Fold:
Amino acid sequence: MSGPHQGQQLVTAGTALSDAQAAAVLVHGRGATARSIVQMGLDVHEEGLALLAPQAAGNTWYPNSFLASVEDNEPGRSSGLQAVEDAVDQAVDAGIPRESVLVGGFSQGACLASEYVARNPRRYGGLAALSGGLIGETVDPDSYDGEIEGTPVFIGCSDVDPHIPIERVHATTETFELLGGDVDERIYEGMGHGVNQDELDAVADLVGNVLAT
Structure:
């Protein structure tokens, strides 16, 4: 598709794709950059993991809250999903099995990463949603079809995040459980909107597991 985020830079780091056995597609948050989320990725990097981070035009994937109607966040939402898919496809085209590709993000990027996996259900190396959830005014877990075949899913969020209602976090967890994911939801008391060390450790565990398979 053609959209606002197509033609933007794909930032890469870690092990070169040609030498990697696994990949992590990392999606940055609103107002941030691909380079900033790659920096987080380097904190959990192990040899053998390629890092790929698409860049949003204007540093924002979609204009409104992820709780707004889907239509109100187009074409950014669909264009962003395509950018995630293009990064995943680049890893697969380089010879990395899709089940060895992790997808993750923070904030707006976590919403986009979650939405991508839920809308493209199959086995992935893992999903890490840090302070985010599925996109739309409402989420009906029963409305998602397909199987993610035991994909490890880590969902971390504060109980008082000003942008992410805890009810949406729980609905996202329920959705991925119904899709057949191996879901680890962790709610952090009083954290606010950010990433803590326990979350980074959980993502590092996903990396270690995907490299061990």
About this structure: The helical segments are 34-43, 76-93, 108-119, 166-178, 197-212. Strands lie at 10-14, 22-27, 49-54, 101-106, 126-130, 152-158, 182-188. The longest helix spans residues 76-93.
